[in-house]
Amino acid sequence: MRAPLACVGDLVADVLTPALVIDLDAMERNLARMAEFARAKGMRLRPHAKMHKSGVIAKLQVAAGAVGVCVQKLSEAEALAEAGVADIYISNEVIDVRKLARLAELAKRIHLAVAVDSVLGVDRLAEVLKTAGSTLDVFVEIDVGQGRCGVAPAAAGALAHRVVSHGATDATGQPTGMRFAGLQAYHGRAQHLRDPAEREAAIHHAVTLARAAQSSITSAGIHCPLVTGAGTGTFVHEAASGVYGELQAGSYLFMDADYAQNRPAPHAPVFEHALFVKSQVMSRGVAHAVVDAGHKSHAIDSGLPRVWRSGPSAASSGFADIEFGNGGDEHGILTPRSDAVPALGDTVWLVPGHCDPTVNLHDHYVVVRGGLNAGVVEAVWPVDARGCLD
């Protein structure tokens, strides 16, 4: 891992570019707002750490009240466990026997859970757990509208029965091997519907499907302890459903340019942009400027980044009236619409279109206290799970 682009105590102006920067004051406000929302609603909070991939941040979330974190990949769980995170849910399927063997070993070290959506997945998991002598929680995933992973709600009972059939108890009566933990019911597609009424309708349908899955499980003679899911775009609706007991929102902590396009739901907490790519103008024409942050510095799957106007106060900050254009791997082209063309050497702050894959492009976070104008580097945090794709 290469050296970070800043050291503790540096002025934000001295951070080399392009750099992934956290506005720590904004992040802490986001952290507190979501934690308080979950407490007020009586909900468990298990934020998605695939977004930040950081052991430090995961532990901050747990300290604020989260029960643990979610990840999507086994290697992410391994990296965060190595960084000291003790309660992790892999909210995704693991089917490869070699990976399942690693999962069983990890379950000896931390409290671990995983999702399943097939008989083969359940049976393979049961075999490796028996061999390793490990115990973990298992959630049956249902498809609530994403059209990706998950069984139909009517099939949830049969799969839950399969999980329970592989369970056992030790000499003290405690469950060993597989413990059926409930339903995974995440609707990813609903997160980015721009109109709050559309998001509410999508989650209303997801709740109906989750209830059907619960009924299927109950009919199989099995208690369903928990329904878990929700994201930054819809968590207020899952929290109001009376069905979901745990929220998995992740992007609320940083926010990104794509989520900024969502019109907020009434009474939802307001989250601030806290993740930025610091860039510098390296070339300038008559009507455009070029910064040193291209596609290798930020993801583009949810659109190009937006230029941020960093004022001395929150009231004077916001998106600048400058278009960020595709300049390739190493360059971004700025074309002002009404604001002035930035000068050669100027700092330009970018809000990534999608925070999760942007984070995966960087080795470190430069963590700034005191704002983007005159702040000071308070910490440099590794992106522990960078490149953890398996």
Q: Could you characterize what this model shows?
A:
With 390 residues, this protein is α/β, with parallel strands linked by helices. The chain has helices at residues 24-41, 55-63, 74-82, 97-106, 119-132, 156-165, 196-219, 235-239, 355-359, 371-374, and strands spanning 19-23, 44-45, 69-71, 87-90, 111-116, 136-141, 168-169, 175-176, 178-184, 227-229, 246-247, 275-284, 289-291, 306-309, 318-319, 322-326, 332-336, 347-351, 364-369, 376-382. It has two domains: 12-20 and 270-382, Lyase, Ornithine Decarboxylase, Chain A, domain 1 (Beta Barrel), CATH 2.40.37; 25-261, Alanine racemase (TIM Barrel), CATH 3.20.20.10. The chain has ten helices and 20 strands. Strands 1, 12, 13, 14, 15, 16, 17, 18, 19 and 20 form a ten-stranded mixed β-sheet that branches. It has an eight-stranded parallel β-sheet with strand order 2-11-10-9-6-5-4-3. A hairpin with a 5-residue loop joins β16 and β17. The two termini are 19 Å apart. The relative contact order is 0.17. The mean pLDDT is 96.
Which terms would index this structure?
2 domains, TIM Barrel, 8-stranded parallel β-sheet, 390 residues, 28% helix, alpha/beta, Lyase, Ornithine Decarboxylase, Chain A, domain 1
Query: Which ranges are low-confidence, i.e. pLDDT below 50, for 5 or more consecutive residues?
Result: none
Q: DSSP helix count?
A: 10
What is the number of E strands? 20
- The end-to-end span amounts to 19 Å
Helix content: 25-40%
Provide the domain count: 2
CATH superfamily label of the largest domain: Alanine racemase
What Rg is obtained from the alpha carbons, in whole angstroms? 22 Å
CATH architecture label name of the largest domain: Alpha-Beta Barrel
Shape descriptor reads: elongated
Summed over residues and divided by their number, the pLDDT gives a mean of 96
